[in-house]
Design goal:
This protein is an alpha+beta fold. Helices cover 18% and strands 51% of the residues. It has a 23-stranded mixed β-sheet that branches. A hairpin with a 3-residue loop joins strand 18 and strand 19 (361-370). The termini are far apart.
Length: 447
Amino acid sequence: MKALKIVLVVVLVLIVALIAGALYLNHYIQSPAFKDTVLAAAKQSLGSAVTITDMKVSLLSGVMLRGLTVANPPEFTGNLLTAEAFVLRYRLAPLLHKRIEIEKLAIEKPVVTLVRNDQDEWNYDKLGGTKSPTGSSPSAGSGGGGSSGSPLDVTLSSLALDHGDVVMQSGGKSLLALRDIILSSAVNLTDGKLTGSGNARIATINVANSLSVKELASPVAIAPEAVKLTSLSGTCADGKISGTAGLTLKPAFQYAADIQIKNSDVPTLLQEAGVTKKVLDGKLQLTCALTGTSGLPTITGNGRAEITGGQLVNVPTLSLLATLLQIPELRNLKFDQCLLEFTIANNQMQTTVIKLISPEVQITGSGTVSLADYSLDHKFTLALAPGLLAHVPAQVRNVFTDRGDGFLTLDFKVTGPYNAPQTDLKDRLVKGAANQFLQEGLKKLFK
C-alpha cells in the first residue's frame, strides 16, 4: 500500500509538472521574445526580412499570424509577399497514431509579386538561408541513412487561399497579373505522396496589359509533384474559354496550358491590347498549347487562330493600295477567311501561315513577331482578281505577276512595331512603274 501511494504521488507530481510546463510553454509562445525568435529564424531560413503585426499561438490548437510581410531579397526593392492573415488549425490527439490532422491551413488576401531584374534574375530565386560549410543538408538519421521511423500521414481538411493576387513583372512592365484568386481543397500526405482535390477561381487574368481573361474557374487535381486544372471555363472578350492547365514540380518546375477560345469579339480584344482605332471586326476562334518555366522567353508552343464573319476597316496597307490602285473596296474589305497558324520559341512567334481570303483579294504570307519588343518582320503576297486592275495604268499593272489562274500577284514586306507597321508597297509600285511621269506623280502624292 505504501508503494502504491508513492507511485500515485510520483504520477501526480509528473502530471502537475507537465501541466505547469505546458502552461509555461503556452505563456512563452505568446511573448514578444518568442515572436522575435520566430522572425529571426524565418529571416535566416529565407535570407530576407519577415515581419508580422500580430501573432496568436495556442499549443493545443494552432497559430494565427496577421499582417505578414516577406521582403524581397537585398538585390530587389519592395516585398515578395504580403498577406492579411495566415491561419493554421490542428488536432494533437491523432499524433498518438502517427497521424497529423490539420483542420485548416489558410492564407488570406495574399499578394505575391514576382520580379525579374536587368540581369534576368527573379526575386524568388534569391531566397534561401545560410548554407552549412559543406553545402549539404543535415542528416535525418545516423550514418546519413535518413530517419529510421515510419513517416507520418498528414490529413489537411481545408487548404484555402482567399482573394489572393499574383503579379509577374520584368523591366518595370507587367508580364502577368492574376487577381482575386480563390482556392479551396483538401489534401492527404500518405507514404510521402501528396494527393487531393478542390476548386479554383480567378476573377481576372491580364497578360502583358494586352489580353484579359475573366471568371476563370476549374476543378483542381493534386497529384504527387503536380497540380492540374482539369476543366477550365471562363470568358475572354465575350467569348468562351475551355481547356486544361497545370504545374509540374519535379523533376523541374514547368507549367502547361491547352486552351480553346470560341467567339471572342475581335474589336474588344484589340481595344484591350491598346489599339484605339477600329481596324478589324469578327469573332475569334483559337486553339493554343503552351509550356514554360517562367516568363515569355521560356515559353514554347503552337496554335491556330481564325476570325470568322470579319471585315478589315481602314488598315493602312489596304488604304494605300486602295489609293494607288484606284480600288475603293479595299478600304473596307470583307473576307471569307482570316487564318493565322503559329509557333512560339526563343521569345519569338513564328507565323508559319497567314491567309486573308475574299472573292477578289487574297493576302498570304509568313514571318516572325519578336515577343521582346513586339516588332514584325513579314513577307506577303497580294493577289488581285484581274477585273480589279482594269482601271489602273498599264505601267502599274505591269508591276504584278500573273499567277496562272487569272489572279495578279505582288510581293511586299511589313516590318516595324505591331501597332505602327511599315510596308514597302509604295516603293515597289513606284519603282515598277515604267512611265517617268507616273513615278513622279506617285512620289508627289505620297510625300
